[in-house]
């Protein structure tokens, strides 16, 4: 994508970054996605490549599509904090 | 009233939520160093903490990306996991910063409505003096390129010092961030600890002004995009010598807790 780790987010990836932002920051969006992934992805206007990368939550593919690495990272952290709350406040 | 305290603190969320991926003893040592900062801020009888943080694409998204911003709401609130937090904002100081900053030639953004992310909360969770004091959140864009140049951050810090020194409040200026880490990239497990150690050694010698000469690319390469918050603080501190209370490199993060005796 670029020489720097945190690259300029291409306009072509706006819908994808907007969805990752919602996953990261909006519990209601996470719940909607868990309930009906297909519909939620459609509402966010994501194309087939983005949908496939999200289904696998494949970081390299997401970043290759222009996703911001930090958004990918923290969306995944927030999802896992909800799915595995026992993995936190461990000590 | 001149600035009464200065510190730079880490905010890695693992310090707060303590997953089993972390070295327990390391995390507790960082907690201990943050507790020492809390004691010092309490002893310094600070009236307000001006906290320079990098937005983690939480307060601001791609609808508008401010390089430098001041939060001027009545209170600042947010959430992370089970943590829900809210802080009173020192509105007169926040307004003075944005008004006088703009007067001084910095085209600042201000907001009265952004959520406060964990980059601000984690340091306050551990180091807020007792009793608690109001804050002023100061934002530096660190994650969405093009970020402000280090030299610009340094200049903004210098202007902040001029503003603060003319205020009646006893202010602590605190930077949140760093040191080396690469969230979301394939270098997450290999931060640049050598960069961090060289940096801390130079800060201990009072050579903070040199940080204004970093390029954005150098910071990105070293996993130190967040150093812009430290560089802003260093602009306010001139040649003051850093006291490194802790440097604890974990498997993903160079945790540094630093103060500057004033």
Explain this structure:
The complex is a heterodimer of chains A (91) and B (262). Chain A is mainly α and 91 residues long. Chain A has one domain. Chain A has six helices and no strands. Chain A starts with 13 loop residues before the first helix and ends in an 8-residue tail after the last helix. The model of chain A has no long low-confidence stretch (mean pLDDT 92). Chain B has 262 residues and is an alpha/beta fold. Chain B has a single domain, classed as LigB-like (Protocatechuate 4,5-dioxygenase, Chain B, 3-Layer(aba) Sandwich). In chain B, 35% of the residues lie in helices and 21% in strands. Chain B contains eight helices and ten strands. An eight-stranded mixed sheet of chain B has the order 6-3-7-2-8-1-10-9, with helices on both faces. A two-stranded antiparallel ribbon of chain B has the order 4-5. The longest helix of chain B is centred in the N-terminal third of the chain and has 20 residues. The model of chain B has no long low-confidence stretch (mean pLDDT 97). Chains A and B meet through helix 1, helix 5 and helix 6 of A and helix 7 of B.
